[in-house]
Amino acid sequence: MTVVRPQIATRSIVARSLLALAMTCGLAACGTNPEHANTELGNLIDGAPHLTVAGEPVNVALLRRFYARHDFEPVWTGRQTEANALLKAVSRAGENGLDPELFHAGLLRQGTDLSPLDRELLLSDAFLSYADALARGAVPVERRKDDEALTPEPVDVAARLDAAIDSPDPAAVIDALAPSTPTYRALRQALRTCRQSPAGGAAGCARRIAVNLERQRWLPRSLPPDRVMVNVAEERLVLYRADRPVFSTRVVVGQDEERNQSPEFRAMIEASLYNPPWVIPGDIAQREILPKIRRDPGYLARNRMVMMPGGEIEQRPGPDAGLGLIMFDMPNRFDVYLHDTPDQYLFRRENRRISHGCIRVQNPRDFAALLMRQPVDAINQGIAQGTTTRNALPVPVPVFVVYMTAFVDPDGVLRFQPDFYNRDADIWQHLKRPPSGRLPVARTDRRPVSSATLLAALENPGPPAVRIF
Length: 469
Description:
By secondary structure, the protein is an alpha+beta fold. It has three domains: 33-175, no CATH class; 182-219 and 406-456, no CATH class; 220-402, Beta Barrel (L,D-transpeptidase catalytic domain-like), CATH 2.40.440. The protein has 16 helices and 16 strands. The chain has helices at 6-24, 40-45, 60-68, 80-91, 105-109, 116-136, 157-165, 170-175, 182-196, 202-217, 282-295, 299-302, 364-372, 376-384, 424-429, 451-456, and strands spanning 51-53, 56-58, 227-231, 236-241, 244-254, 265-274, 278-280, 305-307, 313-315, 326-329, 338-339, 353-355, 359-361, 389-402, 406-408, 414-416. Strands 3-4-5-13-11-10-6-14 form an eight-stranded mixed barrel. The radius of gyration is 25 Å and the shape is elongated.
């Protein structure tokens, strides 16, 4: 991954610290624990950080927040109608690619042997956990790998469950926590079609779509109308204006090796940097550049590179520099950027996963012109000056770097991409309940699944409405 100038490292440390603070002080944990009444419910919930009810684990933090709003007294004893409506919503979790058994659906359906207290807690945990899964994903950011950093706006699911209880349609209030974007709706429809298909590959199709429904839940519920979307799995960038695609280009992304994969994150493109120097991080310099210097003492001078303090190496600006002639400044804790490249031939390759994580853009001048809202000639003139200049965008533009292996393209067509980074299996294991009830352990399935096989599962009579109009 590329570091452009020293202050970026400081910015990364600050961003990392802010993220840690936000996760520590999120809705599930911020502030002190509420005082609870001396009730059976209150004493049970406050007794331990982990709790199992009728053999099933429950989310104590969510339960504590919810019952604090009710003085730690039972909620569902006099609300059977509302409970039944919410149970029906939970039983339909499969429509969102989620296993209803994650939310005690079977136990609650057969719950004649449950004690009143156990049923009370399981009902609340089912509704809260399902609401939380719709609101921010069944695999929220604190349970993912570090490079899967996308997360939507925070939602107080305890307050939302209370709103559902008071609503004439409780299920609708909870269902509304899921995304309502055209892509999410199309993926849900495609999931129904896959499950109805007798064709081979239907199970793989359903798994792929369920995993990408989960990734959609990691995005804001209302995407900015002006935005940049980089789908690493597709190796493509799309710029949207007023929710309409206006520019699309190929990109080079991170290698398949885990340490060099492009992460999933959100940032703001703040400026275009013309004639940027390339500061090669110390780990990359140590691993790749220093061996070349040992073999060839003239390597640094020939490539216009100089040694920097701390083991970094800087390549001077120029048409042959690693960042090309344009870099797009988008501060983020991964130090991953969009930039030009002198190696334009790479964009003719089908496999463009060859970077250390940063994203090389095929047509950076056209992209810069759209971001800067200037003609391409103005971009060319700025570059022709030959000096390193930072040019602020008139309005910063959000960029989402995603990894969608099933998605709806700008023409409204459902498409599948291979899971090159082998990330799907880990997510899939968290979307279903193992028979033992144990927490799932990810197992990577490296067998290739072709797009043709997956799409075949969609080609059957029925409601295959996967194109958006």
